[in-house]
Amino acid sequence: MTPETNVRRRLAAALVSLAIMAPAAAFDLNSDTPIKVTADNARLDDAKGIATYTGDVELEQGQTRLDAERVVLYRDANGLSRIEASGEPARYRQPARDGNGETDARALNITWSATDQRITFEREAIIEQNGNLFRGNIIHYDTQDRVVTAEGGTDTGSGPGRVEMVIQPRSTDSRTD
């Protein structure tokens, strides 16, 4: 095998691993499974369609879970349209798409938008799955097209503010040369 072929295989494996570690469809509004919210405090402004939960907030739908210090739910005529979560950090977890393991994502701010079909992890964002890691200042995940994009932060002097990705090697049994 030529070095160029080896590099191409590794790049292809990296891209496949990135696609696998992305979260699935997040909260499913077409599901019969309700979204359950618990918190220390709640405020509902029915006229504006805004519910604000604070203090050890837990949001669950099936095996998908969001934990944060503050969660704001926005409703429109079509139902739940947006979820904004913040914490030190806020944490989003759900089973991996392939059924092996769990996607564990953390950021200081997490926003889920039904209209944009996107989850955005902002500030100190990290997504982990099965030892693979994706880190950036901002990570966007398009839940419809399954596309992940990331941005590094500005260099603050303590680090370069770049995007980082760690991909675990495949087991030796599945490698072919």
UniProtKB/TrEMBL annotation:
NCBIfam families: outer_YhbN_LptA. HAMAP family: LPS_assembly_LptA. Residues 151-177 are annotated as: Disordered. GO terms for cellular component: cell outer membrane; outer membrane-bounded periplasmic space. Belongs to the LptA family. It comes from Marinobacter gudaonensis. Keywords: Periplasm, Signal, Transport. Component of the lipopolysaccharide transport and assembly complex. PANTHER family: LIPOPOLYSACCHARIDE EXPORT SYSTEM PROTEIN LPTA. This is Lipopolysaccharide export system protein LptA. Its main location: periplasm. Involved in the assembly of lipopolysaccharide (LPS). Required for the translocation of LPS from the inner membrane to the outer membrane. May form a bridge between the inner membrane and the outer membrane, via interactions with LptC and LptD, thereby facilitating LPS transfer across the periplasm. GO terms for molecular function: glycolipid transfer activity; lipopolysaccharide binding. One of its GO terms (biological process) is Gram-negative-bacterium-type cell outer membrane assembly. It is found in: Periplasm. Residues 36-145 form the Organic solvent tolerance-like N-terminal domain. Residues 1-26 form the signal peptide.
